[in-house]
Each structure stands twice: as structure tokens, then as C-alpha cells.
Amino acid sequence: MTAERPRRTGTRAAETAARKARILTAALELAANGGYEAVQMRDVAARAEVALGTLYRHYASKDQLLLAVMLDQTETLRARLEQHPARGGSAADRVSTALERACRALERNPRVTGALVRAMFATEPEAAELKSQVQREMQALIVSAIGTDPTRSADEIAAVVDVLGQVWFSAMAFWAGGVTSTPTMSHRLTSATRLLLR
């Protein structure tokens, strides 16, 4: 009679997910301490306790890694806003509130925000899909805040969401670059929201 092999407690998928979570956390911590320049792939691998080759198999460049961090952050923000929806009597009020909350989240760590925004300007073709995913998450957050609006067609809402997403990213880039203050960023987003959803 052969001895029974011990069962593995985790699956390969769970191990991969845990490894990716450690990698994203390591990149986030390095960005928080020193911004974009502080995120070096070798340092990320060491902090996440993974081999450098393993890190590159998941993320082929620093920009792709930071975009993955940005996607994770945006997904988390959207989930929080869906759990605690923005309140307001109109779509403009709800979207303004949601974007204001998003701005406060960005303000908590300007070095991280600056690093993530810089990664969004990456020119490598391989980063395009991650950038598209980030954009879709930002748009989904706005769609969720708009809610049901029988006065507008689906095409009109899609157009509004697209423009607001572009304004949001532009405002965030100016803020991260030190050109505008947080109140100015929030004011611009509110103004754009009210113009598009009045």
C-alpha cells in the first residue's frame, strides 16, 4: 500500500494571484517613497520576494507594472464607490461627488499618482491594452455615478462619459505635474460635469 501524497493547500492560480498582489504592493510602496524613479524592477522583485525573471514574465517593463498598479487602484476605487454610491438629486451632482472622492483618494499620495500618470504616457505598444483597461475602469466609475437617466440616449451618455474621462485624466496629469492645486482640479471636474450633464 503506497502512502497518500499530501494535498496541496493552494492552487496554481491562487499562488499566481498572491505573487502578483505582492508585486503590485511592492511597486506601490516604492512609488510612495520616491515616485516614478524609485520603482526599479530589481527593487520590486526583491521587495516582493520573487525572482527578477518571474517579475518580467508578468510585466515586461516598469511602465506596464505601474499601469497594472493604476488598474488595481482604479478597480478598488470603483468598488468602494459602488459599495457607497455618490448621492445627489441629479446625475451631475452624483458624478461631481464621485469625482471629488476620487480626487481626495489621489491627493493622499501625490508621488504614487505622479508615477501612475507618467506611466499612462508610455509609448510602448505593449502597454496599450493596460491603458485601455484603466480608461474603461475610469469610465465605468462615471457610468455608475450617472445611474439611470431616461432623458439621455445610450449614445449620448457614452459620449459624455468619454469626454469626462478625458477631462479627468487631463486634470489629474496637470495636478500630478504640480501645475494645478487639488481645489483647482476638483473645480475643473465639477465644471465639466455640470456643463456636460446639465
Structural account:
- Helix 1 crosses helix 2 and helix 2 packs across helix 3.
- With 198 residues, this protein is mostly helical.
- It is built from nine helices and no strands.
- The N terminus is likely disordered.
Distance between the termini: 77 Å
Silhouette = globular
Number of helices: 9
Main sheet properties? none
Mean pLDDT: 90
From N to C, what is the helix and strand string? HHHHHHHHH
Number of strands: 0
The percent range for strand residues is: under 5%
Which regions have little confidence, pLDDT < 50, spanning 5+ residues? 1-7
Q: Assign the structural class, choosing from mainly alpha, mainly beta, alpha/beta, alpha+beta, or little secondary structure.
A: mainly alpha
As a whole number of angstroms, the C-alpha radius of gyration is 20 Å
Summarize the amount of helix as a percent range. over 70%
Descriptive terms for the model:
mainly alpha; 198 residues; 0% strand; disordered N terminus
Summary?
The protein is about 75% helix and about 0% strand. The protein has 9 helices and no strands.
